[in-house]
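hi got a favour to ask and not much time before my train. below you get a single protein, a line of residues and a line of whole numbers that encode the local backbone shape. could you go over both lines and see whether the tokens make sense for that sequence. a few lines back from you is plenty, here it is:
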Amino acid sequence: MRALVYTGPRGLELRDVARPVAGEGQALVDVAACGICGSDMHAYLGHDERRPPPLVLGHEAAGVALDGPLAGRRVTVNPLESCGDCDFCAEGRDNLCPDRRIISMPPREGAFAEQVVVPARNLVEVPDGVRLEHAALAEPIACGWHALRLAGAAMARPLAATRVVILGGGAIGVGAALVTAASGAREILIAETNRARHATLGAAGPFQVYDPSEGEPEAGSADLVVDAYGGAASRAASTRLARAGGVITHVGLAGGDQGLDMRRATLHEITVIGTYTYTMADFRDTARAIFDGRLGDFGWVETRPIEAGIDAFAALDQGSVAASKIVLTL
């Protein structure tokens, strides 16, 4: 079968590889669409030692189940596998399972391929009429859904009364913005340094888009800050922008541990929440919101065939893509 294989820093090849075989409790999925995630880019650049080459990347997938309980059905894939038995899994916090695994990390091959194997219980059926390219977005948007759910529980006022600043206009950032908009937030601002994305982001929803290199909102003016980038500069901005008693959710994993001003967070009782991926319940809720049309028409997404995948990664590396997400189709 065809697969896009990561071969080393900035190296990808479209190869013929062996078809995977589903084991007990697993399902084989015929992949129709798979999005390029920031973590795929980190691996592509040689910055992720957890993803050594050669490896099939990709975990934001949707397609058709070939076996298991949903055989023959269109499905979207939760790529996180948990044990189902530990305390975290019993509490419904399966994203914190100490034995969690994700496809696209050894020994699990990813979904930039014609077929992928995943736990059968991780599949969610996609209704007719919903494009599989959009169903594949349940994975990145679920990260924002999870972050907003945790933020809502920590905030002193409802989301509908808040001013929200989202740092980063990639798929996780715009997904968080769409979830926030669906919750009725009073004002939503998105910081994005890639000017090519501004028009796309502005058309995605009721968002104010700005370039933080040219200025930012008034310090202490945000009820909620979502750091969808997760680097030193965005962490510094998050504690600068959050108001006294406000909330910061740190979602992005760009790297490093600098930037967060814990002195200001302490003096102003700013709640800082680290949020990692999503639970299965978050994933299902996100998928339903996509299916119901609550998260817009996905005009911020660009699709390209997997044959153009090598060029798509290169374009993302160069910062020349206006879309917040590229989804590869098979």
